[in-house]
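Internal ticket #5521
Category: modeling
Description: The requester needs a full-assembly model to guide mutagenesis choices. All entity lines are attached below as received. Residue total reported by intake: 223.
Assigned to: D.W.
Attached entities:
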Amino acid sequence: DTEVTQTPKHLVMGMTNKKSLKCEQHMGHRAMYWYKQKAKKPPELMFVYSYEKLSINESVPSRFSPECPNSSLLNLHLHALQPEDSALYLCASSQDSGENTEAFFGQGTRLTVV
Amino acid sequence: QKEVEQDPGPLSVPEGAIVSLNCTYSNSAFQYFMWYRQYSRKGPELLMYTYSSGNKEDGRFTAQVDKSSKYISLFIRDSQPSDSATYLCAMNYGQNFVFGPGTRLSVLP
C-alpha cells in the first residue's frame, strides 16, 4: 500500500475562518511533508517533519501551523488566510528524510480562500 | 539559473508514438532522481525512481540518467491518450524534493 490520504478534497473558507487539513499514511514512513502548488507550477516545500519533529519550515507565514500528532498523521491548521493562499495543498511521505528516498503524494486539498 | 530545467511544452504526439521527456540539473549533489505524473487537479503520482546512471525500465516507461551531463530522461513507448498529463522530474536533496517545472503532454487519439 503506497497510499497517502488527504482530507478534505476541497475546502472553501473565508479570511476569518479557522480550518484544518489532514493527512494520513500507513506505510511506516518517518518523514512527512506539506507542499503548496499553484496552477501550472511545481510543488513548493512548506514543512518537513522527521520522526514527528518539525525539521524544516520554509519561512512559511504563521497563519499556516503544522502539527504531527503521531508518525502516521500530519495536520495543517489554517487561520486568517488571504486569497493568494488559494492553491492545491499536497501532503507527502517518505521512508525517512535523508537522501536516496522517494516521496509518495496524496491527492491534495484544493483550497479556495474567499 | 534554476536548479532543475524542464521544457514546459505543451508537447502533443499521436497515439502510439514514443515520447521523450527531459530534465537538466545544475547541482552535482543530486543523486536520486524521480519522475512523477500529475493529472489535472490531482496529486503527483510516482512513476519511476533511480539513483544510478544508465537505464531503468518498467513496462512502457524507461528512465535514463546521465550524471556526467547532468541530464535525465523519461521515455514512454506506445503512448496512450491516458498518458496525457503533466510530467515532473524531481531530485532528492537533503530533506527536500526539488522539482522541475513540468512538461504538459497531450497524446492525441
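Resolution: model delivered.
Comment from assignee: The first strand of chain A starts at residue 4 and ends at 7.
Ticket closed.
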